[in-house]
Amino acid sequence: RQVEMLFYLSLLDTEEEKSKFEQLYYQYRKLMYLCAWEILRDEQLAEDAVHEAFIKLTKYLKKIDEIKCNKTKRFVVIVVESAAKDIWRKEKRNSHETWEEVEREYHFTAEVNVSQITVIEEAILKLPFTYRQIFQLKYGWGYANREIADVLDMREGTIRQRLARGKKLLQELLEDAGVHMNG
Predict the structure, then answer these.
(1) Gap between the Cα atoms of 11 and 59, Å rounded
(2) Cβ atoms of residues 35 and 82 within 8 Å
(3) Phi (first) and psi of residue 141, to 5 degrees
(4) Whether the Cβ atoms of residue 107 and residue 121 lie closer than 8 Å to each other
(5) Element holding 168 (H helix, E strand)
(6) pTM
(7) What is the per-residue pLDDT across 33-85, written as a single tens digit (0 to 9) for each?
(8) 128 — pLDDT class (breaks 50, 70, 90)
(9) Is the pLDDT of residue 115 over 70?
(10) Under 8 Å between Cβ of 170 and 135
């Protein structure tokens, strides 16, 4: 772990960034591994996903204000889920399982106190994580489509398309919950 930490710290410029990253690393490493393992079901591949996620997180340290908060926790989970999904896709040629099956079985979410969320937030949490990730980045944290595309390693057009599909699915979920929205 020492060599790993030295590698990550070498990617950063200031002592402030290095300190923030160290805190992030020690706070979320185990959680990130658990998320990746839940998707990949392989120790080495999960470690690879965590590594890729930490490299990506070095680029977004300036957007992280507090280390120990739900917003940061959810962001870290989104980044590692994306890395795990990318690795799963590369490895899928050895599997008979479809991504939809993996996604259905994957129910890991950052701990959320459901009594403190709105009907809309609850509906967003019910979205498949492919859409949920994009919604959280876009509407929860104000990321631009271009930034979301970078975080999730997708094309910007894919982000726009998933936002549109996600909105339609969200509207259906809200209608099922008895919430009718205009437009």
Answers:
(1) 9
(2) no
(3) -120, 0
(4) no
(5) helix 156-176
(6) 0.72
(7) 988 988 888 899 999 999 999 999 999 898 898 999 888 988 998 899 989 98
(8) confident
(9) no
(10) yes
Q: What single letter denotes the amino acid at residue 151?
A: V
The reported pLDDT for the residue numbered 112 is 47
**Could you give the CA distance from residue 96 to residue 19 in angstroms, rounded to a whole number?**
43
What burial letters (b/e) apply to 120-133, b meaning 16+ CB within 10 Å?
A: beebbbebbbbbbb
Residue 142, SS3 per DSSP: coil
Please give the torsion angle defined by the CA atoms of residues 43, 67, 117 and 148, in that order, rounded to the nearest 10 degrees.
-70
Tokens read off for 182:
């205009």
Helix pair angle (2-10, 15-40), 10° resolution: 120
Q: Where are the alpha helices (DSSP H) in the chain?
A: 2-10, 15-40, 43-59, 70-91, 99-105, 119-126, 129-135, 145-152, 156-176
